[in-house]
Specification:
With 220 residues, this protein is an alpha/beta fold. It has 5 helices and 12 strands. The chain binds cytidine-5'-monophosphate (C5P).
Length: 220
């Protein structure tokens, strides 16, 4: 049983990897499974929230009760999230869990790339994707924004710095960079008051603890 800590709240969650095309059949992605983001969406629904999940390609089933919008690219994720932000119904809480590609291929081909007879390889040119979390956090009336960070070292130092740089009240750090695809995780919560470590546990259990932590902070 989970108390209805977010009853009546509208929650938007991003999850999974993004996929950046190189040509119609190839692309660049990452190893995010989407498990943590889906667990957050499920926990928010269980806590009584109305939940929208904007997800990159994953193998996961849509959590019961959650509205899922599937996207491929970071730009599509950005556009859907910003449309949700502009919607009349409003968003109370934004949890950015997605592993968004930092760059897209600027010279993606509309036709499948062919091997060159001379053996030369195609040259990809990258351009930066929008930072969805930072864009939402910079809105005149932002929802309560929660970011995630996967760092391979100096998490305590980088976590707090990232929280301030993205200008979000709560940032969640993954301890260790081996979380991708795993069923359990270890998290540190960074807020203006400092940091709190959550003991290693399953992603669904951690998502419930995170939702409780968000509800506590919203209530203050
Ligand atoms: O800067 P970094 O990618 O480590 O930040 C991670 C956090 O920012 C995550 O919450 C992620 O979902 C979000 N993010 C985003 N848009 C991007 C890059 C990251 O929303 N383009």
């Amino acid at each position: 049983f989970q108390p209805k800590l977010l009853k009546g709240k509208r929650v938007l969650v991003t999850a999974g990897p993004t996929f950046e095309p190189i040509d119609p059949v190839r692309g660049i992605t990452n190893l995010s499974s989407g498990k943590m983001g889906y667990a957050v969406a499920r926990a928010a629904y269980e806590a009584g929230a109305e939940v929208t999940l904007v997800s990159g390609p994953t193998a996961l089933a849509t959590p019961y009760g959650v509205r899922r919008i599937g996207i491929q690219t970071a730009q599509q994720m950005h556009d859907i999230v910003m449309a949700q932000m502009a919607a009349q119904s409003g968003t109370d809480i934004f949890v950015a869990v997605a592993a968004v590609a930092d760059w897209r291929v600027a010279n993606a081909s509309s036709q499948k790339l062919k091997k060159n007879a001379d053996g030369s390889a195609p040259q990809l040119v990258f351009e930066q994707n929008p930072d969805i979390l930072a864009t939402v956090a910079a809105l005149p009336k932002p929802p309560y924004c929660v970011g995630f960070a996967a760092e391979s070292e100096n998490l305590l130092q980088y976590g707090e710095a990232k929280r301030i740089r993205k200008n979000v009240p709560l940032l969640v750090g993954n301890i260790g960079h081996d979380t991708f695809g795993k069923d359990d995780n270890q998290l540190v919560l960074f807020d203006a008051g400092g940091h709190t470590e959550l003991a290693r546990a399953g992603k669904q259990e951690l998502a419930r603890q995170l939702i409780a932590a968000i509800a506590t902070r919203l209530g203050k």
